[in-house]
Amino acid sequence: MNQEIRIKTKHFYVVLVILGFLLIYSLSSSRDCDENNQALEDPEFVAEREAFLPNQKGPTIYAITPTYSRPVQKAELTRLSQVIRLVPNVFWVLVEDADHNTDLVANLISRSGLQERSVQLFAKTPTNMKLQGKDPNWLKPRGVEQRNKALDWIRKHLAESGGRDRHSVIYFMDDDNTYSTDLFIEMSKIERNKVGVWPVGLVGGLMVEKPVLNRDGIVLGFNSAWRPERPFPFDMAGFAISSDLILDNPQAQFSYEVERGYQESELLRHLTIVHEMQPLANKCTDVLVWHTRTEAPKLDAEKLLIKSGKRSDDGLEV
Question: 228 and 196, same structural domain?
Fold first, then answer.
């Protein structure tokens, strides 16, 4: 009997020791979580997070996206909408290359919950300026009609809403590129009457195309390998514009009458000069956007189905 009591007592103490270790571990983990939470509240982190709040500390960013009907359109726009949902101060200006707004784009906006932070427009590219068949994508300028339509809408919207008195930013956000949410934090830093610039990955035959700065952080030029003689030899994804410049220069727009690769220069020549641009993204050392392209899907089997009067997507929106 005494031996049984001793065994039970020993087991009791063992359980107490285990519970003690678990309590100490729990308290230690809780303290680590508190320290991590305090780290997240670092003043610099809080300032950048609060810069996202629209119409408060950070400017509204009008992201202009030209888009057109093709098999990957919904996939591309879905990916883009996921980024925009994470950045509350972005207002999405979607412009379709069509003679009316389509249900596909309207449905995508609705499903993404961005109805209050977007506008759906349309502007048809003239037939003689559209790519045909197997034309390479560089043969004719793309997005001219759509980007100009968006600029017209933004100018009118800001004038009617009193937006001229509030600083905002305009960015050309193509639907086939890849964007880090950090890029929009950088855009929020663009000052009035400035064009912000940063590196773009995987473009112009280079791993990265970027502004070149001097020791004082002034933009001297760009490391462009393709047609570096252009006045602004860099990609559409590599800059954003203070709304003041767009409002004060109504003549600034895109044109069909310029050489290949000169669309950026055609717009920016009305707005700024190279050494007055505002370098961002850690003095142009961080890559936060990439000039990616979706591979055209192989739909040979689908074409055979269509010839037989059937479709795999009959009744579906893909």
Answer: yes
SS3 174: coil
Structural domain span for residue 96 = 56-290
**Residue found by looking up tokens 């600083």 in the block:** 167
Q: Is 295 among the residues known to form the active site?
A: no
Reduced 3-state DSSP string for 5-18: HHHHHHHHHHHHHH
Residue 165 makes CB contacts below 8 A (sequence gap 6+) with none
Q: Is residue 183 within 8 Å of 246, Cβ to Cβ? A: no
Residue 200 burial (CB < 10 Å; 0-12/13-18/19+)? Answer: buried
Q: Which of 4, 264, 302, 317 is catalytic?
A: 264
Q: Look up the pTM and report it.
A: 0.81
Do 188 and 68 lie in a common domain?
yes
Residues 271 and 165 in one domain: yes
180-213: pLDDT as tens digits: 999 999 999 999 999 999 999 999 999 999 999 9
Please check whether residue 29 is in contact with residue 66, taking contact to mean a CB–CB distance below 8 angstroms.
no
